[in-house]
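Entry 14. Ran structure prediction on the chain below.
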Amino acid sequence: MTKDQFNLLIEAIKFDKIDLSDVQEKVVMAKRQMALSLHKYKIWEGKNGKWYTYLPEEGGRVLKKRTSEADIQDLIVEFYMSQQEEPTIKSIFKDWIKEKLEFKEISKATYDRYLNDYKRFFGDSEIEKEKIKNITEDDLEVFIRKTIAEHELTQKAFSNLRILILGIFKYAKKKKHTYISISAFMGDLEISSKVFKKVLRGVKVRCTWKMKSLRC
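Output, C-alpha cells:
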C-alpha cells in the first residue's frame, strides 16, 4: 500500500465511509489465504474421520492430526504466520537461498554447498532456533568465535561461514526482521589469524628406515 492509498484509507475511515471491522476481517482473511498457499503438503481425511497433514518442523516433516478440516487449517495458518512474523535463522536461511536459486543468482551446486555448510555450522546450535529479531551483535560474535573453536575452522572454512552470515542477516534486514547492519559488524569484528587451523601445503617429508624403525 502506498502512502497516498494509506491516507485515503484513513480519511475514508474517519468519515465512516469504510467499516474498520470489515477492513480488519479482510486483512485477516488475506493473511490466512497467504499462509495456506505456503503449505505444500497434502491435507486429507482419514478413515477414522480425523484430518491430517505434514508440517516442516525440526528434523523433517512431522505428521499432524486434528478433529476437523477447519482445525487442521487453523494449525497450518498458525504455523506459517509464526514463521513469517517471527522467523528464526533457519527459516530466513531457507528463504534466502531459495530466492537466490529461483533468480539464478546461484547454481544448484552452490545451493547444495550452502545447505551442507549451514548444517555443519548452524545445525543443532542454540542460535539456530532463536528468533532472529532477538539476536544481538554480542550473541552473533559469541556464536562465530565458538564455531571457529569447536569446528577447528581454517580461514577458508571461515570464509564459507561468513558468506552464510552475511546472506542471512542482509536478507533479514531487507525484510525488516533485524536492525543489525551485518556488513559493518563483520567489518569491525576482530579475529586473530592464530585461532584458525593451519593447513600445510607442499611440505615434503622424507622418511628412511633405520634399525627396523621409521624415522622422518
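Helices lie at 3-14, 20-38, 69-85, 89-102, 108-122, 137-151, 155-174, 182-188. Will compare against last week's run tomorrow.
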